[in-house]
C-alpha cells in the first residue's frame, strides 16, 4: 500500500472534453451513464470532434448535433478530491468549465 503524503499545495489540472451544445450548466456534470472523454490539449479534443463529425456526415441516416469543446479546470486534487472523483464522477472535481469552441454541422 502506498504511504499517504500530505500535500501542502495540491495540484490542479486543465483538461478538455466535448459535449452536445445546449446542456444547461447545472445539468452538465450530473452522472448520466454516458462517460466523458477527456484530453490533455485543445488540439486533441478538436481532432476527435472533427473526426466524429466527419463520420456522422458520411452516414446519410445520421444527424450531427452541435457540439462544443469545453475547457475544464479541476479543484486542487488532494486525497479527498480523488475519493470524490472515484465515488461521484468528474463533476465533483470541476472548479471551472467554459466553452472554447463550437462545431455545427459540416456543410
DSSP E strands, number: 4
Order of helices and strands: EHEHEHE
The overall number of domains is 1
In oligomeric terms, what are we looking at?
Answer: single chain
Strand residues, percent: 25-35%
Distance between the termini: 54 Å
Write down the overall mean pLDDT. 86
Overall radius of gyration: 16 Å
Secondary structure class reads alpha+beta
Helix content: 25-40%
Main sheet? 4 strands, antiparallel
> What is the number of helices?
3
Neighbour order of strands in the largest sheet: 2-1-3-4
What characteristic shape results from the CA principal axes? elongated
Q: Flag low-confidence runs.
A: none
Structure description:
By secondary structure, the chain is α+β, with helices and mostly antiparallel strands. It has one domain. 28% of the residues lie in helices and 25% in strands. The chain has 3 helices and 4 strands. The protein has a 4-stranded antiparallel sheet with strand order 2-1-3-4. The radius of gyration is 16 Å and the shape is elongated. The model has no long low-confidence stretch (mean pLDDT 86).
Give a short synopsis of this structure.
28% of the residues lie in helices and 25% in strands. The protein has 107 residues and is of the alpha+beta class. It has one domain.
Give structural attributes:
single chain; 107 residues; alpha+beta; four-stranded antiparallel β-sheet; 3 helices; 28% helix; 25% strand; elongated
Show the helix and strand layout.
Elements (H helix, E strand, L loop, with lengths): L13 E7 L4 H4 L9 E2 L2 H16 L9 E8 L4 H10 L5 E10 L4
Antiparallel strand pairs: 1-2, 1-3, 3-4
